[in-house]
Prior knowledge:
Elements: H1 13-19, E1 23-28, E2 33-35, E3 43-49, E4 52-58, E5 61-68, E6 72-74, H2 77-82, E7 89-92, E8 96-102, H3 103-113, H4 119-143, H5 146-156, H6 158-163, H7 166-173, H8 177-192
Antiparallel strand pairs: 1-8, 2-7, 3-6, 3-8, 4-5, 4-7
InterPro entries: cNMP-bd_dom, cNMP-bd_dom_sf, RmlC-like_jellyroll
Domain Cyclic nucleotide-binding: 26-111
Protein name: Crp/Fnr family transcriptional regulator
Amino acid sequence: MLFQFKDQFPQLKLHLDKYLQYQERLELPAKTILLEEGKVSHRYIFVEKGCLRLYFNNNGDDKTVQFFFENEGLSSLESFVNNTPSMFTIETIEPSVVYVTQQKHVGKLMEELSNEPGFMKMMLQIFARRQTHYINEFVSFIRDTPEQRYQNLLADRPHIVQRVPQHYIASYLGVSTVHLSRIKSKLAKGKSHF
């Protein structure tokens, strides 16, 4: 949870460097499952290279919740913290290089850092950023049309559209691949009129 923030919060560096030895580097092909829905998450994942997705199964259909790229970290957080079955599956989308750290080492690191001045404020900032992101996504699903959500994706996170296969983007937007094709076609026609 913290490894990707060490450049933003230099006071972490000494503590984090001490825990580098506990990170396992994995080179993985696309479509590698790192955590299955229903299993307990015991590892924190940091992406050095590649793309991963977080998804759940809804009556036989995969519903993509989020994508993760270079220098981002993830786990099924509630499962990781509470030792409960994960609601999500984590899978590589492209060949990826990740570092995994076992839960016990992350726990020890967090204990050590809890004594550092400003640590709690930093943690609140990290969680607030992530919470704000998820709230914005939730509100967008209620307020915006699929076309608006796709346009937001193009404007705010074009790397997703450039790197992620269309069927995963459609799943993320909550539409079929046919509907996504129609949206893209409509937007392309709109641009050609200018």
